[in-house]
Design brief:
Elements (H helix, E strand, L loop, with lengths): L8 E11 L4 E10 L3 E5 L11 E5 L3 E11 L3 E6 L4 E2 L2
Antiparallel strand pairs: 1-2, 1-4, 2-3, 3-6, 4-5, 5-6, 5-7
Length: 88
């Protein structure tokens, strides 16, 4: 067990990170997903600021108020402060 509160599921889902209320959009791929967070793969992940952002998955789910938990050169770990909703 790795200390996570929720079980992680491997995925390969395209997604978009929306920063500053959607004024900046970054493409990423969700590699692992749980009820409490995700691992995102993207170019330049180390440069993404440690602010809250929204995460829009290509399958229609939206996670609001995501926060970066950890970062590496090409991946980010994020936590969800709110459950997902379906995009309208």
């Amino acid at each position: 067990m790795d200390g996570r509160k929720a079980h992680r599921r491997r995925t390969l889902i395209g997604a978009k990170i929306l920063l500053n209320g959607g004024s900046s959009v970054l493409d990423c791929v969700v590699k692992d997903l749980s009820d409490g967070g995700a691992r995102l793969i993207m170019d330049g992940a180390i440069a993404v600021p440690p602010a809250d952002f929204d995460l829009h998955l290509s399958d229609g789910r939206v996670f609001h108020s995501c926060r970066i938990a950890w970062r590496q050169v090409s991946s980010l770990g994020v936590s969800f402060s709110q459950p997902s909703v379906n995009a309208a």
